[in-house]
Amino acid sequence: MCDNKPMAPYAKLPELEEYKEWFKDFADLYREDGILQVTWKTNDGPMHHSGMSHRAIGQLVRVLSLDFKNEIIIFTHIGDNWMTESDPNGWETYSELPTQRFQHQYFDDTNLIKNMVFDLDVPTIGAVPGPGFHWDSAFLSDVTICTEDTVMEVPHAQGGLVPGDAMGLMCQHYFGTKRGNYYMMTTRQFTAKDMLDHGMVSEVVPKGKAVERAWEIARMWKLMSYENRTIMSNLAKRPLKKLLVEDLKLHTVSEQYGSLLRIAAGDLGDEHSAQQDEKYISRVNDYRYATTDMQEPMTAEHWAGMANRAADWFKKVEAGEIENPFDTSKPVKPYRPAPAKKLNK
User: What does pTM read for this prediction?
Assistant: First the structure.
């Protein structure tokens, strides 16, 4: 008997309330009028870079892409800065050979980048509240806002690591080959002004205003039809899609290959090794952003003395002589937008 009904319904996918629980250790998810704000974090504080957070970012982005209720997505970080911390114990499975390390470097490193551009078909905004590293989600967004105090870098080479996680690739893309190579190969930091002048960010705003500005833009886009703003986003993503098809896998596999060579040679380890393990690189994070040392042209003395200078800096922090502006003990909360204004269109 024909009842004019499909033989099977649409597959049931998770709703926001379900998948926000899946990723609650890594992101706060807040949605209003189709605008989803993704705030990176670890538990209730700033995100600490780890194998687990590394994987979760790519996984979450893929899940977000399956929910058509996410019409516009804002990516930001909890508190007043981007990610500045690492979990010193968050890389143990990353180092296990062969399978776990392969999965982290072959799959996660690539998915973290490509899912932002190939999975998300809606407009995206990166809102950078301050300095930090692993800025992929913010700078792969269609529009990127940063605060005037933002400084970033590609830190790998100072620790002996091939900079192949696509941060260097994005520097080449946004800054141009020579300037991008310079930042990638010397680890010198670039400022908000550098990024604005070279087209790496769309706007620079006062401290504390990045996410607020992102919501202003998102609400502006809501004045367009859903279909047309979504098609517009595809045009915005096309240059990055072409870039990633050409070069992303070469970059990520190059970093993996370099690491495996150092493991085979037995010189992957602490700051005295040819290549530092992630847990040792993390020891200098706060120092990098609390001082202006890395904004100067880099030299052999800069690289060789960084671990000692960072250690001396931390001693002064512990002695109460100076303040660490990236103290993770300070309570932080995800941003929530003010109510939208009623407009006469």
Answer: 0.96
